[in-house]
Design a protein that fits this description.
This protein is an alpha/beta fold. It has ten helices and twelve strands.
Length: about 350
């Protein structure tokens, strides 16, 4: 069973032992994703967390077949999408959509909003230009909190938050079962972030769409995700229920992430203890043997030069760490500020 997979039936998405690498010249490769496994149930949000360069977006793009893996499998509704090509892949992509990070660059500035939102329906042969398409586009815009009359305007006429609502309307046009939200709110002001997050939560409740929610903002992830996956240098460090991860982190890297996250209460913030990471920053061309975090881990010992297996530390909680029991005393389990969640 995949890490994070439920015991009742096939999950919507199941990723098994995924490996993605990119050529870097002179015979070297970037080790972007290394042997990652997880699952997303129907109507569930999995938060994918890690620092820049950890492989979060690469996983999202590989799930959608924008990248091909070196090895491993990606099952969508039980079908291995890594083996799918041609018209079948085109059909699968109706059920798997993406919301990009930057609403300013993800929308064609030369197209009217109605054409942007309606384009997926035309491309997949679900509608033709005309009154019926205009009605459907208007419904999608209103579903995302914009007036139907917005379809006659260009993206330049809208704010960042409004543009992201347009991008969400486009993603919803084909009624997908899975949406990859790649840092979907990181380019927005905090107040607008809350609006977009609450919109996604509402849409999920109404349409039972599943999300792979990629973010470095722990407060946002805590608000929206059912489960959280912690990634470091392309490796899965820890995976479990959101409340469990935030209240009782196990992996030293998870402790470090949570200890660095700001808290809204200034009194609590001043009193908090943090983990300051030292040591050698990882070289993705030549990662160290064993645990990739060991060159910065405050608990690293000689055993860490051997790669730790991903094990079920307790029911539903997966951890890759030889020193998981010793990490309990580290700081980082304090409440993370929810300033970005409405």
């Amino acid at each position: 069973m995949s890490a994070g997979a439920g015991s009742s039936g096939e999950p919507l998405l199941r990723v098994e032992d995924l490996v993605v690498r990119f050529p870097a010249g002179r015979g070297e490769q970037v080790h972007a994703v290394e042997h990652v496994s997880f699952a997303i149930e129907r109507g569930q949000t999995l938060g994918l967390v890690g620092e820049s360069g950890s492989g979060k977006t690469t996983i999202g793009f590989t799930v959608l077949r924008r990248y091909d893996p070196v090895s491993g499998q990606v099952f969508f509704e039980g079908e291995d999408v890594t083996e799918v090509t041609g018209e079948r892949l085109r059909a699968l992509r109706r059920d798997m959509q993406i919301i990009f990070q930057d609403p300013y660059s993800s929308l064609n500035a030369r197209m009217r909003v109605g054409d942007i939102v309606g384009e997926p329906l035309i491309v997949h042969g679900l509608a033709k230009k005309g009154k019926a398409l205009e009605t459907r586009v208007g419904e999608l815009l209103e579903l995302c909190g914009l007036p139907a009359a917005s379809m006659t305007r260009y993206p330049s006429a809208f704010s960042g938050g409004e543009r992201q609502r347009i991008a969400i309307a486009r993603a919803l046009a084909l009624q997908p079962k899975l949406i990859v939200a790649d840092e979907a709110v990181s380019a927005l002001d905090v107040s607008i972030q809350a609006q977009i997050i609450n919109l996604l939560v509402e849409l999920q409740r109404e349409q039972q769409v599943s999300f792979l929610f990629i973010s470095h903002n722990l407060a946002v992830v805590r608000h929206i995700a059912d489960r959280v996956m912690i990634l470091y240098a392309g490796k899965l460090m820890e995976l479990g229920d959101t409340t469990d991860i935030f209240n009782a982190p196990v992996h030293p890297y998870t402790h470090a992430l949570l200890s660095a996250a700001p808290v809204a209460d200034p009194v609590v913030e001043r009193a908090r203890e943090r983990i300051v990471l030292h040591g050698e920053v990882l070289n993705v061309l030549r990662p160290p043997s064993g645990c990739v975090f060991r060159t910065r881990c405050p608990l690293a010992v000689e055993q860490c030069a051997t790669e730790p297996p991903l094990v079920e530390h307790r029911p539903g909680r997966w951890v890759a760490c030889w020193r998981a029991d010793e990490a309990k005393g580290l700081p980082g389990a304090e409440p993370v500020g929810a300033d970005a969640a409405g």
